[in-house]
Amino acid sequence: MKDILTSSFIKEVSKTIDQMYRLGWDERNGGNLSYILSEEEVRDYLNVNKYNRVIDLYIDASFLSGKIFLVTGSGKYFKNVKENPESNLGIIQINPDGKTANLLWGLIDGAKPTSELSTHLLSHIERLKIDPLHKVVIHTHATNLIAMTFIHSLDEKAYTKTLWKMNTECIIVFPDGIGVIPWMICGNEEIGRETAKKFQESRLIIWAMHGVLGVGQSLDEAFGLIETAEKAAEIFFKISNFPNRKEITDEQLEALSFAFAVKPKSNYLE
Prior knowledge:
By secondary structure, the protein is α+β, with helices and mostly antiparallel strands.
């Protein structure tokens, strides 16, 4: 077997996590990530018939039976992932019962997967129903997007359109808008199910006063969604105290949608 620390998936995940930490989005043990791996990707690094221990999932994830996930650990600091992946990451495979998973690698010394694992698995289920090529769920504490939830309407249409109007690329990158979930206690099945429902219609979800979740077919896509929205939120704050502000109009957003062949969320443009 090859050294798993040389694998592209460990390197790419570690790089993405380190980048989010350095952007200031993931203080302490804030944030989590999960990434679907194929058996083809892991076969040179792991024997999927051998596992270290069994992990309880506390939800029914039978839809994901047999799927392999690279996940961040509970209570783990993003700043430490790049230097010590085996302590801070884990690879699990969902068992046929859908209620447990086998730990194939990582999460040493009894560490557990992220406390948001139910949110990740439920979200993966809904996104795979829509997009068979879906692979990634990222949850991070992007500063400006969180700050917006304290002063901006939490109406999804209003929140989305404010961001669309801050930067020309926004409606092109996330024409499906942003789902918004009012403040809830995190780390449980309830918020996981609410989040998964929102992912049926959007690829970006805001947890008010907490953070943002993005999904995609790759790490770059999921990260890029969050990065684009966060940049728009930053622009929102930079211009908010100036009089006579301009904005991208609905007519211009419509023209952008036509030019780039994207379909904005229904009834969002006047």
